[in-house]
Structures are given as C-alpha cells and as structure tokens.
Design goal:
Layout lengths: L8 H8 L43 H13 L1 H22 L4 E12 L6 E4 L5 E4 L3 E15 L4 H67 L5 H35 L32 H4 L1 H22 L4 E12 L9 E10 L7 H67 L5 H35 L27
Antiparallel strand pairs: 1-4, 2-3, 4-5, 5-6
Helix pairs in contact: 2-4, 3-4, 4-5, 4-7, 4-9, 5-9, 7-8, 8-9
Organism: Stakelama tenebrarum
Keywords: Lipoprotein, Membrane, Palmitate, Transmembrane, Transmembrane beta strand
GO molecular function: efflux transmembrane transporter activity
Length: about 500
C-alpha cells in the first residue's frame, strides 16, 4: 500500500515547482506598430458586429450558400481535424502532471512428468521446488512512478500545449472566414458573368439587326459593301466573347459547388436564373486599428504561437536542473488465492538525475527556443501590420469601385442615347456605319464597365469584411467539437 503515499505529495510538489522560463505578457499595440487611426478615409466609429456579414447584402441565395459552406466545406473540416489533434496533444501534455500507475498479474502451473523435483521461478524472483505432483503459482503487483516538476519544465510544456490548442482554434476560425469570403466572391463573380453574358447577347441581337439593315442598303445601292463587312465583323467579335464568358461562368459555378463540398455541377441548375449583382450597405464602421488585435483570428493565432514559443523556453531551461523521480511498488505471490495476501512485499524509491556534460546540447536548445520565440514575435507583428494593410487596401478599393460605378452609370446612360440616335440616323442615311459601329461598341463597353464596377464594389466590401475579421464569434476561443468522429470509408466504399 506504500505507493498511495506518493499521491498526496503531488499538489505540494507542483506548487513548489519553479518555472524557469520568462514570464509571458501580451505585447501592447504600440510595440506592434499599430497606429492610432487609418491613413485612408474610414468610419472609425465602433465596429459593427460582423459575425454574419453576408446578411448585409440582402441576397437570400448568397446567405444560403455561405451558411451551407460553413458546414460542408472540406477545408473547414480539415481545420476541425487539426483542432482535434491539438486538443489531444494538450491532453497528452497534461498527463505528465500526474503519476503513472501500473499493475501486473501472473499465473502458472507446473506438473512433474516423472519422479523427481520440479523447480518453478515466480515473477518476483522466488524459486519454489516440489518433489512430486503439480503446483500453482499466482502473483499480483502494482507500481507507481512520478517525475516531480521541480523546475517547471512540465508546467511550461502544458502551457505551450494550451497555447497551441488556442492557436489551432483561431486557425480554424481563419479558415472559416476565408471560405466564407471565397464563396461570396465566387457568387458575385457568377452574377457578374451572367450580366456580361446578358449584355453580349443583347448586343448581338442589335448587331444582327444592324447587319440586316446594312445588307438592305447595300442591295439598294445606297452604300458600298464596306458597311455590310463592318457589320459582320462587329457581330463576329461580339459573338466570340460569348463562349469565353460561358466557360468562365461554368468554372465559377463549379468552384462554388466544390467550396460547398459538392460535385462541380451540383449548383448549375440552382444558379441558372440570372439575378442582379448583390450590393451591400453604403457604409461600414471599421473601428480603430487596435480593434483588429481582438477581431482578426490570424492575429490571435499569432499571439498564441508567441505564447507557446515563450513557454518552450521554460521547458528547455528546466533541462539545466536536476530531475527527481519518486515511486513505489507492491507485490505478492502464493500458490493459491486463499494465501495470496499472506506475504506482501513493497518498496519506495526516489531518484535524482543531473546532466553533467552534454557537449552544449542543452544550452543550444535554450538558445534555439529563445530564437524561436523572437521569430514568433516578428511573425506576430508582421501579421498585425499585414492585417492593417488589408483593411486600408479594401477601404481604398471600395471607395474606388463606388466612384467608378457612378461614372460608368453616367457613361452607360450617354452611350445608350448615342446608340439610339446613331441607329435612327443610319436608317435614314444621315450618318455612316462607322459612327453606328462605334456607338454600339461604346454601349457594350459601358454596360460591361458598370457591371464590373458593381461587382468590384461587392468584392471590395467582402474583402473589407474579411480584413476586419468578420464571419466568426470573436468573443470566444473556438473549441474542438465533442461529437465522435465519422468512421473512415471501407475499401469497398472508396
């Protein structure tokens, strides 16, 4: 029973542990180069809640696709699997804080095949001899051992694993919000391509009429065949853009399906109906730059990676000091269960070990851990600055797209009026076909330009939501789900 006395000592030994690593504290925004305000025009009022930013576009299909992608995307599923792995690594690391218990048992029977004696060696080393007949030998044993964390190496290792687990949770959130944004961007692209296809087909219909009119005028001797050839050339160029647009549309819809964990053609029927490019709100409150330290999951992951690297310095430094292992065991052996408890032996041991010379390995490990922590800090700061860059670029792109939309709207209105007048004047012979041809080309270009500006505006808004860290609940640290894993497919299912 002696081994039970080891367990009450553990809390006191843990409290006595002296952590050798540096004390970790989060860096202040000023240490990370975070400015007080953005260098581009921005609404720095308190940032709005962006957990489900896709609802701001007021497009039910967009919202439905994003929600489905959150549940079914395979990149997200892989991130969840990595999060589960990190949790189990934490469980394994915590196990080092507790003693290791073991038990053993044995049974043997010997028979004398002829006269003489039979000698049997029991598991505890006891030698028993019998002169005749057979005998039974039963043995039971239990042992316990515990490595005392005198200098905090184990505690530091647990702290590093805990930080790794938190970082894996934030990495999962980073994958999640990236997938949400990619689904939304591809949806916007699909609607843009639909708009461009619609523009091309309408232009092709008008150019068919122009070609017919030019042919009539050539037959009537009013104009030369140059008009008919120009009309045919313009129509062919417009028709040539349609297969390319259709191929791009097919690729975009296929990409959307794969993002939802579906076969490439699964969404073609669902998205077949042409709809407008989604437009978001007119303004977005982005808050101050320091808000990104809390909202962006990649920043919080980088901070946890720094915490883990700092804790590992303590793990390395603890190797400089002695290690203490304590333990004990009890054993019993007999020829029958009735006498099994008659004789019980036990032992208690303690072992102290200290490395005297290792060729500088431990010192090198400490310096390597310190260098890793320094590198983690630089990665943390780089992530912060890159995040601020993403936000400012998205703000500038959004402002640019909105300005271009206004200009292209004016250009489309003017081009439409010019095209109407040019068609009327060409029919009456008041202008030549070159003027009509230029007017039709300007109309198609203005229509595509307006559609592109609207798509760019939506994409810039999506990029801004992503840069701000929208799409997850930043008030919690994501945890691995507790439900059991799905079984892997069998060879027949594969």
């Amino acid at each position: 029973m002696t081994f039970h006395r080891v367990v009450p000592l553990i809390p006191g030994l843990l409290l006595a542990a002296c952590v050798q690593g540096p004390e970790y504290r989060p860096a202040a925004p000023s240490e990370l180069g975070v400015p007080d305000s953005y260098s581009v025009p921005a609404d720095e009022a308190e940032a709005e809640r962006l957990t489900q930013w896709w609802e701001n576009f007021d497009d039910p299909m967009l919202a439905d696709l994003v929600e489905r992608g959150r549940e079914a995307n395979l990149d997200v599923a892989q991130a969840v699997a990595r999060l589960r792995q990190a949790r189990e690594s934490l469980v394994q690391s915590r196990a080092s804080l507790y003693p290791t218990l073991g038990a053993s048992g044995g049974y043997s029977r010997s028979e004398a095949l002829r006269g003489g004696t039979t000698t049997t060696t029991l598991p505890d080393g006891t030698v028993t001899s019998y002169s005749q007949g057979g005998s039974n030998s039963i043995s039971l044993g239990a042992d316990a051992s515990y490595q005392v964390d005198l200098f905090g190496g184990t505690i530091s290792g647990v702290a590093a694993s805990r930080a790794d687990y938190a970082a894996a949770g934030f990495d999962y959130a980073s994958v999640l919000i990236s997938v949400e944004a990619e689904i939304a961007r591809n949806y916007v692209q699909a609607r843009l391509l639909q708009a461009q296809l619609d523009n091309a087909r309408r232009s092709l219909t008008i150019q068919d009429d122009n070609l017919e009119i030019a042919g009539f005028r050539v037959q009537a001797g009013l104009v030369s065949s140059l008009d008919a050839e120009q009309a045919r050339s313009q129509r062919a160029q417009t028709a040539a853009t349609i297969p390319q647009l259709e191929a791009s549309y097919n690729a975009t819809v296929s990409r959307l399906a794969v993002l939802l964990g579906l076969p490439p053609g699964a969404l073609k029927q669902e998205l077949a109906e042409t709809k407008a490019i989604p437009q978001g709100p007119g303004s977005v409150s982005v808050g101050i730059p320091a808000d990104t330290l809390r909202q962006r999951p990649d920043i919080r992951s980088a901070e946890r990676n720094l915490a883990a690297a700092t804790a590992r310095i303590g793990v390395a430094r603890a190797q400089l000091f002695p290690s203490l292992t304590v333990g004990g065991s009890i054993n019993t052996g007999a020829s029958s269960f009735d006498t099994l408890t008659d004789v019980i032996t036990g032992r208690l041991f303690a072992n102290i070990a200290q490395t005297i010379f290792d060729g500088g390995r431990t010192g090198s490990q400490i310096r390597a851990s310190e260098a890793a922590a320094q590198g983690a800090f630089f990665a943390y700061k780089q992530t912060v600055l890159t995040s601020l860059e993403d936000i400012e670029n998205a703000l500038a792109a959004l402002r640019s797209a909105r300005e271009r939309e206004r200009y292209f709207a004016d250009a489309l209105d003017a081009a439409n009026n010019v095209a109407i007048l040019s068609r009327s004047q060409y029919r009456t012979g008041l202008t030549d076909f070159t003027t009509l041809n230029q007017a039709e080309a300007s109309l198609l270009s203005a229509g595509n330009g307006l559609a592109q500006a609207r798509a760019d505006q939506a994409s810039a808004l999506i990029q801004l939501y992503l840069a701000l860290g929208g799409g997850w609940d930043s008030s919690i640290v994501p945890q691995a789900p507790d439900e059991p894993l799905e079984p892997l497919p069998t060879s027949q299912e594969r």
